Amino acid sequence: MTMSPERLATTIAAHAADKKASDIAALDLRAVAGYTDFFVICSGNTDRQTKAIHDAIHLGLKKEHGLLPQRVEGVAEARWILMDYLDVVVHVFTPDTRAFYRLETLWGDVPRRDFDPEALLAELPAGTAAG
Questions:
Q1: 73 Cβ partners below 8 Å, 6+ apart?
Q2: Helical H runs in 66-108?
Q3: CB-CB contact of 42 with 13 (8 Å)
C-alpha cells in the first residue's frame, strides 16, 4: 500500500521531530514542479544532529513502510542533506546553511505548512518515538 504524498510528508516530518529537528515545514510544489510534490525542510543545530535526523527518517521509512530514498546527498558533510523519495524531497539543514540557501524564500509563492513538533510525535507508531 502506497502512501499519499501528503501522508509521506507528514511521516517524514514526524521522524524529523523525533530527533528534535526545528523549523519543520512542508512546501507544496504540485502546482509549480513536475519532479516532486513536496519539499520537507527542517534544521538540526549541528552536523551531528542533521545526520541523526537523516538516519531517523531513513530507518523509520524503511522499517515501517519499506521505503528507501532514490538518492541521498550531503551525508558526509551533513550541513545540507537531501533525501529524494520522489513524491517528497527532504532537505535537512544546519541553521547557517538553511539561511544561506533560503529555499523557503526561493519557493515563497507556494503553499507552506509549518509543523508543530509535539503534534507530529503522535503520528509515529507506538514505541517508535525516542521520547
A1: 81, 82
A2: 95-101, 103-106
A3: yes
CATH number of the domain enclosing 43: 3.30.460.10
Position of cell 521509512? 61
Task: Name the helix (H) or strand (E) containing 57.
Answer: helix 47-65
Taking the complete model, does pTM exceed 0.90, yes or no? yes
The answer to the question of residue 55 being in a domain is: yes
Query: Contact 24/56 with Cβ under 8 angstroms?
Result: no
Is residue 125 one of the residues assigned to a domain?
no
Q: Using CA atoms, how far apart are residues 99 and 21, in angstroms rounded to an integer?
A: 15
Strand duo 88-93 + 38-43: pairing? parallel
pLDDT digits (tens, 9 = 90+) for 14-28: 999 999 999 999 999
